UniProtKB/TrEMBL annotation:
Lineage: superkingdom: Eukaryota
Species the sequence originates in: Elysia chlorotica (Eastern emerald elysia)
Protein name as catalogued: RAP domain-containing protein
Length: 601
């Protein structure tokens, strides 16, 4: 039951007036129903003026949730610190005792001293039903006070989100209020989604009034709530603002923005190039004291496939300079990023090798068994660069670790990476005699990877079908195969075999060994139609493609690479022109001029 003494205390709260609850005495004994319907909390008189929102509102109201209360100490430390900074610009209500100050601690003491006797659900209910009598600042301040006093009410946050969404056309929101609104509703699903779109629009219209730290907080909160920016115009404006006001952002907030840019798939080459230059200037990375912060810069550049060798050199250097030993999670992402962007410059490789040596002394079996996916990312990144620390593989990728990798949940699954590493060791490390996967593990892995099919990939990549049809018509259908030539690379290629004695193509034999090929004087040719996803934005092969080319050549294949730009034109070309183009490429690989199998009369 809601204590009347506490009500008297709260009635002096300048934002919770006594008249809000004095006329609801009958509700003192009322219990909140299990399914809370926000439709009863505020007037919907303006709903008729917002007809375009009717369907959304109905859906959201039906998704309301039960009241819940949790201690805010369960929230991440960065959120508590962020909220404390947000509250520096908020005028909290004065407490009952005039001798007490109006700071947050005194107000918390007033409420918390008798919190056990307060029916908090009814307190929240009383607040929610009076939204129409409150200003935006009052509504947000009550949310702040609930949070600061350890009362995390999904009912209040959801009701606030619905109210703001319905009344958005008439509300005035300052940048600070937008940030606080995002803070309190970002984890509500699906209630927060339409409100976030509205808040993005408000933010876009008032972005010059935001500080860079406020923008960074919004980015971090959206990422934490798993919301992507819906407006790429806003993201682009944020990017421009960051470049122009780079000196004003608190360095610790910058990695927050990298998370949101990556999650929202923001790809603008000029932005990342300029950002990389700014990070390289004035030893900016020295502002960061742990690898977790530095990792985000390497990770975002690799995720959007944009190279910046100077930045990666500084990232690797700074990680080595840190006094505190980096977490394996952070090192694995940094090495994966280096491998993905193929940072093979000598200075890069020297620093990467130093990191590998450091891992040898700091890694433990307990770390590996708890987070085997981190070790897998680390080893795959190194494999892209043709670095195989076989001692680490021998020591830490045993039967138990393999089984744990196979049992990871879907969000952390490493099936493709595990197959890649096992097959790559066989090709590039012949002296590594141990078979990484047992027969049982191999069967289980194959069952998980069954959805990768060459025929499906071939159809999804539009240039493949016209190229295959053109070659089959030119040199014979039986002489052209399309398949995963190396099973651990899940992109289809065209496989040809050319008999150099008879000067003609022969049907490819998938099981034929390299020795048999040499003795038969048969040349194996891979026609590889590249896609944009396989290269960086300056047309350099990414780690997977770089490694694939290296392994194919190790096995004796001749590789004909066709750029993504050229491949895209194949869907528009006449068949005869396409045949001539493809045969011209293959002729250089076999050192013999080729003509169409079916010449015109």
């Amino acid at each position: 039951m809601l204590s009347r003494a506490i009500l008297r205390q709260l009635s002096h709260h300048k934002y919770l007036r006594k008249d809000w609850i004095c006329d609801t005495s009958s509700s003192m004994n009322m219990r909140v129903q299990p399914t809370f319907r926000p439709t009863s909390l505020y007037s919907t008189s303006k709903a008729s003026k917002l007809r375009n929102k009717a369907t959304t509102m109905q859906t959201l109201k039906q998704s309301s949730v039960k009241p819940t209360r949790t201690k805010n100490t369960k929230t991440p430390l960065w959120m508590r610190n962020m909220h404390a900074e947000l509250m520096e610009s908020v005028a909290l209500p004065r407490s009952l005792d005039d001798t007490r100050t109006d700071n947050h601690d005194d107000l918390s003491d007033t409420v918390l001293s008798r919190r056990d006797s307060v029916d908090q659900d009814q307190l929240v209910f009383a607040l929610c039903r009076n939204f129409n009598s409150m200003s935006v600042e009052e509504i947000l301040t009550e949310a702040d006070l609930l949070y600061m006093n350890g009362i995390s009410s999904s009912v209040y946050a959801q009701s606030m989100a619905l109210y703001f969404y319905e009344m958005m056309d008439v509300l005035q929101l300052s940048p600070g209020q937008i940030v606080r609104a995002v803070f309190h509703v970002q984890q509500l699903w699906p209630v927060a989604v339409p409100l976030m779109v509205e808040l993005e629009a408000r933010m876009e219209g008032s972005l010059p009034q935001f500080t860079m730290d406020q923008v960074a907080w919004v980015c971090q909160l959206l990422f934490y709530g798993q919301h992507r920016f819906k407006s790429m115009t806003l993201v682009d404006a944020i990017g421009k603002k960051l470049l122009n006001e780079f000196d004003t952002i608190t360095p610790e907030n910058l990695p927050m923005m990298m998370k949101a840019f990556r999650y929202s798939n923001y790809i603008k080459v000029s932005f990342y190039k300029q950002l990389g230059d700014l990070l390289c200037s004035n030893k900016y990375l020295n502002n960061f004291s742990n690898a977790g912060q530095i990792m985000h810069f390497a990770f975002v550049f690799a995720s959007v496939h944009i190279t910046h060798p100077k930045l990666f050199k500084l990232v690797l250097t700074r990680v080595q300079e840190l006094e505190q030993s980096p977490r394996m999670k952070d090192l694995s992402k940094i090495i994966w990023a280096c491998g993905t962007l193929v940072t093979t410059e000598t200075e890069h490789l020297e620093r990467i090798q130093a990191i590998v040596d450091a891992v040898r002394t700091t890694i433990s079996p307990q770390q590996v068994l708890r987070y085997p996916d981190n070790l897998m990312d680390f080893l795959v990144g190194l494999a892209y660069l043709d670095i195989y620390p076989t001692d680490l593989i021998e020591q830490y990728l045993g039967h138990d670790t393999i089984q744990m990798l196979l049992n990871l949940d879907s969000g952390r699954s490493k099936f493709v990476q595990l197959e890649f590493l096992a097959e790559s060791l066989t090709i590039e490390c012949p002296k590594f005699k141990r078979k990484l996967l047992s027969e049982a593990h191999h069967r289980e892995l194959v069952s998980h990877l069954g959805h990768f099919r060459a025929d499906v990939d071939m159809k999804l990549r539009k240039p493949m079908l016209p190229a295959i049809e053109a070659l089959r018509d030119a040199i014979g259908e039986e002489n052209v195969h399309c398949c995963f030539v190396l099973p651990h690379f899940k992109t289809t290629d065209i496989l040809l075999e050319f008999d150099q004695t008879k000067k003609c193509f022969v049907p490819p034999q998938d099981k034929r060994s390299t020795n048999e090929l040499n003795s038969a004087n048969v040349k194996r040719i891979i026609v590889m139609l590249l896609s944009k996803a396989q290269t960086s934005y300056d047309d350099r092969p990414l780690g997977m493609l770089h490694c694939k080319l290296r392994q194919l050549r190790t096995l004796g294949y001749s590789v004909v690479q066709i750029s993504a730009e050229e491949a895209l034109t194949y869907t528009l070309m006449e068949k005869k022109d396409l045949q001539d183009r493809l045969l011209s490429h293959v002729s250089r690989a076999v050192d013999h001029r080729l003509t169409r199998h079916r010449e015109e009369d």
